[in-house]
Amino acid sequence: MVVDDDPGFRRIAGALLTARGLRVVAESPDGASAIAAVREHRPDGVLLDLHLPDDDGLSVARALSREGRPLRIVLTSTDASTWSDEELASAGILRFVAKDRLFDTDLNALFSPTA
After folding, report:
1. Alpha carbon separation from 20 to 49, 64, 79, 102, 109 (Å, rounded)
2. 75 touches 92 (CB < 8 A)
3. Burial call 16-33: b when 16+ CB within 10 Å, e when fewer
4. Pairing outcome for strands 72-77 and 93-98
5. pTM
6. Fewer CB within 10 Å of terminal CB in the chain, N or C?
7. Greatest CA separation found in the chain?
């Protein structure tokens, strides 16, 4: 699942994930609809933007983690990450990947439910 307020980025990220053999089951432009979409579509993973119009990605990740179902959350942004691995993990985030590094990242390893 891809969560980003920019429809162009959602389209590019979806195409990149699909090209890597992953299936995008939903897209959301904000945190509230992302939480509803996770409940409806039950994805294995979420590519989650840090800056959303209604909330920040860390808060959305915390809410998704409280849903009680294992979910692989990867936070992304054009901003550099200023959080430690421990801070990300405490929010339920597997990893931070800058948007300009997504193409070079092993997305299969990050999102595969068997990884």
Report:
1. 19, 24, 24, 11, 10
2. no
3. bbeebebebebbbbbbee
4. parallel
5. 0.93
6. C
7. 32
